[in-house]
């Protein structure tokens, strides 16, 4: 799998890495987590179509070598990146996650569906700003060339150039609820 995503796996202390490995192997004796196990383990069943599609996209993003499984190193790399990674790396990872069709750009439909899915998963669908308004605000602020798609450069630069926007975006598009659930569940086994 390698260290292709620039993750901070190497920053983890050996003791913590051993604990994570022990917990992972307790839950996944085969050493590989399938999509079905991922959903079942984290209680991510019975979600609406958009939320389910988002969970599947998250799984595919964690599955860095695209073999249909999340192995231990992929698990640690994903958790380490989301929990401890530099903001630049997190933004690149979020971009990859949100680029559902893998064409190198995020369009309005992709972003809108992801915002709705994350809000549904996190239980905060009734926010002050609607998902549609938030999506429009994102595109108004960071779609520099006005083509209706966000390139990686626009996404990262837009988040970096406006602290208020970065805060709103990171809260609205936050994965920490799921990552915390993953991390806490692993430590409680």
Task: Characterize this entry briefly.
The protein is mainly alpha-helical. The protein is 63% helix and 5% strand.
Give a short account of the largest sheet: 2 strands, antiparallel
Tally of helical runs: 10
* Percent of residues in β-strands: 5-15%
Distance between the termini: 26 Å
Could you explain how this protein is built, in words?
- This protein is mainly α and 189 residues long.
- The protein has one domain: Recoverin, domain 1 (Orthogonal Bundle).
- The protein is 63% helix and 5% strand.
- It contains ten helices and four strands.
- It has helices spanning 14-27, 35-41, 49-62, 72-84, 87-98, 108-122, 131-142, 152-161, 163-172, 176-188; strands spanning 32-33, 70-71, 105-107, 149-151.
- A two-stranded antiparallel ribbon has the order 1-2. Strands 3-4 form a two-stranded antiparallel sheet.
- Helix 6 packs across helix 7 (131-142).
- It is globular, with a radius of gyration of 17 Å.
- It starts with 13 loop residues before the first helix and ends with a helix.
- The model is unreliable at 1-7 (pLDDT under 50).
- InterPro entries: EF-hand-dom_pair, EF_Hand_1_Ca_BS, EF_hand_dom, Recoverin.
- Keywords: Calcium, Lipoprotein, Metal-binding, Myristate, Repeat.
- It comes from Myripristis murdjan (pinecone soldierfish).
- One of its GO terms (molecular function) is calcium ion binding.
- This is Guanylate cyclase activator 1Aa.
């Amino acid at each position: 799998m390698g260290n292709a995503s620039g993750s901070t796996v190497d920053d983890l202390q050996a003791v913590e890495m051993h604990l994570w490995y022990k917990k992972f192997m307790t839950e996944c004796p085969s050493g590989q987590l399938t999509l079905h196990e991922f959903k079942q383990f984290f209680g991510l069943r019975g979600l609406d179509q958009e939320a389910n599609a988002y969970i599947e996209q998250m799984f595919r993003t964690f599955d860095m070598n695209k073999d249909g499984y999340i192995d231990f190193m992929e698990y640690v790399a994903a958790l380490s990146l989301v929990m401890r990674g530099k903001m630049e790396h997190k933004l690149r990872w979020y971009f990859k996650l949100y680029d559902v069709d893998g064409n190198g750009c995020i369009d309005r439909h992709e972003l809108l569906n992801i915002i709705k899915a994350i809000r549904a998963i996190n239980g905060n669908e009734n926010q002050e700003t609607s998902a549609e308004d938030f999506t429009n605000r994102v595109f108004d602020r960071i779609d520099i060339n006005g083509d209706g798609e966000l390139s990686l450069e626009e996404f990262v630069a837009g988040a970096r150039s406006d602290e208020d926007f970065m805060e709103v975006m990171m809260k609205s598009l936050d994965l920490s609820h799921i990552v915390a659930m993953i991390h806490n569940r692993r430590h409680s086994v």
